[in-house]
Amino acid sequence: MRNWLVASLVVVIAAVAALTLLRGADQPSSLPRTPDGHPNLNGIWQVLNTASWDIQDHQAQLGVPAGQGVVEGNELPYQPWALAKKLENFTNRGTADQVETKGFLPGVPRVMYMPLPFQIAQTPKYIGIVSEYSRATRIVYTDGSKHPEGHIDFWMGDSRGHWEGDTLVVDAIHFNDETWFDKAGNFHSEALHLVERFTLSGPDHINYEVTVEDPKVFTRPWKMSMPLYRRKEPNVRLLEYEAGMLLQVEEAKRQTPSTRNLRTTE
Predict the structure, then answer these.
(1) CB 238 within 8 A of CB 132
(2) For every one of its 266 residues, what pLDDT tens digit does the chain have, with 9 covering 90 and above?
(3) DSSP secondary structure string for all residues of 22-63
(4) What is the dihedral of CA 130, 132, 134, 135, to 10 degrees?
(5) Residue 129 in contact with residue 120, Cβ under 8 Å?
(6) What 3-state DSSP class applies to 80?
(7) Cα 20 to Cα 36: distance, rounded to the nearest angstrom
(8) Secondary structure (DSSP) of 97-132
(9) What's the CA angle centered on 219, arms 215 and 222, to 5 degrees?
């Protein structure tokens, strides 16, 4: 009797293990897909990290939550002059970060990990990415077209994508040198070249990787990676955060005497 129970248990365990393996093998085909067969990236997504403040490990400060880095190895291979520039940026970050002080576009890849959601709209010929931050927009062309010739100073660069299996691979160039990777002063030049990889790992998660190359600033390419999470709230949508307009409103408030001050001077 005991041997029969043991044998039965072994059969059940083997069956469960086989079923698990089969489900794992079938997982890619179970991903949501568009009519053309590619993984469906449509939706509203957002990171759950602190990379916008600092892409490397960092301690908490007033207004800055502590966070674990998203850089592979946690080190950025700056050239000596560039490391000095980064430290200068960090010292002057309160006024030098134009995203914070002027409401300028954040650039790429920073727009992908700001603490605000973004929406992906996927078609066979292009993929649109719109951020809640100032409606910063990217168009990733997947129609086989090439980058424009020459160098063009775009805030958000020029993005051309293709599919490698179930991974969207995006090549991005044509940047200006006005944006940073984060609020901590990590920066790049106009020679920035990015290769991004978007891999849908399940219905509600995208594995996002980006390889950064900039021979004017860094000694070698380096990589960041992080998950993107689908926003699941009922009726979720992008709202408005027009940074430039909000900064102008605050500036107008500072320059307009308050009612209390006017009464004091009468």
Answers:
(1) yes
(2) 445 443 443 343 344 344 434 444 444 568 999 999 999 999 999 999 999 999 999 999 998 999 999 999 999 999 999 999 999 999 999 999 998 888 999 999 999 999 999 999 999 999 999 999 999 999 999 999 999 999 999 999 999 999 999 999 999 999 999 999 999 999 999 999 999 999 999 999 999 999 999 999 999 999 999 999 999 999 999 999 888 888 888 888 888 866 555 555 55
(3) HHHHHGGGGS-B-TTSSB---EEEE--S-TTT-SS-B--BTT
(4) 30
(5) yes
(6) helix
(7) 28
(8) -HHHHH-----TTGGGGSSS-EEEEE-SSEEEEEES
(9) 90
Chain mean position to CA 79: 25
Quick one: DSSP state of residue 147? P
Query: Is omega for the bond preceding 109 within 30 degrees of 0, making it cis?
Result: yes
Count the neighbouring beta carbons within 10 Å of the beta carbon of residue 90: 15
Residue 262: CA count within 13 A, CB half-sphere:
4
Residue with tokens 């979720």: 236
Compute the radius of gyration of the chain from its Cα atoms.
Answer: 24
How far apart CA 56 and CA 68 sit, in angstroms, is 7
Distance CA 219, CA 222 (A): 9
